[in-house]
């Protein structure tokens, strides 16, 4: 079942912070976060595993609430390069990722 | 460049024709995924492989779609009797899944640049 992301879109000024949320109705084993720029393939940002293990880019942080099946991606001190569409992908079991509908982030100078 | 290559990058075809896409994953990756993406939407899961075994195929996927990964390396996705609704970007991704417990995937996905299909 497709996870739900919020907000659908957000506009920031450089240096501002943003939080993107991802919610599932099913128990999750892991949550992945990807960013996709227009005309390009999605690029890995972060993976959060049940049990607390995380791996990803140093400048990206995220949380995973296993009980609520929710994850949040924190973007701090945003830069122009952060612009793009952010997708969460959820893994319930077996390893396939189901992606949310995306959150479009625009960072303005 | 993620190391995952897809061919062709663009394909224009007439309704009713068959098309085939190829994906070459990162060589040591044991998992390979196919997704479909339309404008403004997230990638939609189609199917995935662990080595040469096809582990799951989306229930929403028509029988006109078939995928193979014959030697556990490259994969092909074939669409038979294409329809205009098949027009989309077809994305391939690979990962290295560590076998933990029930074999859940703990590896990030590396996506190819995609194959864009236009059905006239």
Question: Topology, pairings included?
Answer:
The complex is a heterodimer of chains A (109) and B (120).
Chain A: E1 4-6, E2 9-13, E3 18-23, E4 30-36, E5 43-49, E6 54-56, E7 61-65, E8 70-75, E9 84-91, E10 98-99, E11 103-108
Parallel strand pairs in A: 2-11
Antiparallel strand pairs in A: 1-3, 3-8, 4-5, 4-9, 5-6, 7-8, 9-10, 9-11
Chain B: E1 5-7, E2 10-13, E3 19-24, E4 31-37, E5 44-50, E6 53-57, E7 65-68, E8 75-79, E9 88-95, E10 110-111, E11 115-119
Parallel strand pairs in B: 2-11
Antiparallel strand pairs in B: 1-3, 3-8, 4-5, 4-9, 5-6, 7-8, 9-10, 9-11
Describe this structure in a few short sentences.
The complex is a heterodimer of chains A (109) and B (120). Chain A is mostly beta strands and 109 residues long. Chain A has strands at 4-6, 9-13, 18-23, 30-36, 43-49, 54-56, 61-65, 70-75, 84-91, 98-99, 103-108.
Mean pLDDT of chain B: 91
How many extended strands of chain B?
11
Number of separate helices of chain A: 0
Number of helices of chain B: 0
Radius of gyration of chain A: 13 Å
Tertiary shape of chain B: globular
Keywords for this entry:
heterodimer; A: 109 residues; mainly beta; seven-stranded mixed beta sheet; four-stranded antiparallel beta sheet; globular; B: 120 residues
């Amino acid at each position: 079942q497709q996870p739900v992301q919020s907000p659908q879109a957000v506009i920031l000024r450089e240096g501002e912070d943003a939080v993107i949320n991802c919610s599932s109705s099913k128990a999750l084993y892991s949550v992945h976060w990807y960013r996709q720029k227009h005309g390009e393939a999605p690029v890995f940002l972060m993976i959060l595993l049940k049990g607390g293990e995380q791996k990803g880019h140093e400048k990206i942080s995220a949380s995973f609430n296993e009980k609520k099946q929710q994850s949040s991606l924190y973007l701090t001190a945003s830069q122009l390069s952060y612009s793009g569409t952010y997708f969460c992908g959820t893994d319930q079991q077996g390893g396939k990722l189901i992606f949310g509908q995306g959150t479009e982030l625009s960072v303005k100078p | 460049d993620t190391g995952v290559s897809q061919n062709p990058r663009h394909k224009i075809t007439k309704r009713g024709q068959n098309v085939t896409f190829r994906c070459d994953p990162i060589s040591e990756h044991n998992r390979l995924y196919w997704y479909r993406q339309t404008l403004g939407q997230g990638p939609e899961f189609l199917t995935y492989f662990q080595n040469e075994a096809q582990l799951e195929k989306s229930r929403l996927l028509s029988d006109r779609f078939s995928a193979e990964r014959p030697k556990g390396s490259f994969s092909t996705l074939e669409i038979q009797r294409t329809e205009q609704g098949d027009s989309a970007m077809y994305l391939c991704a690979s990962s290295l899944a560590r076998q933990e417990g029930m074999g859940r995937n703990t590896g990030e996905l590396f996506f190819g640049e995609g194959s864009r299909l236009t059905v006239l």
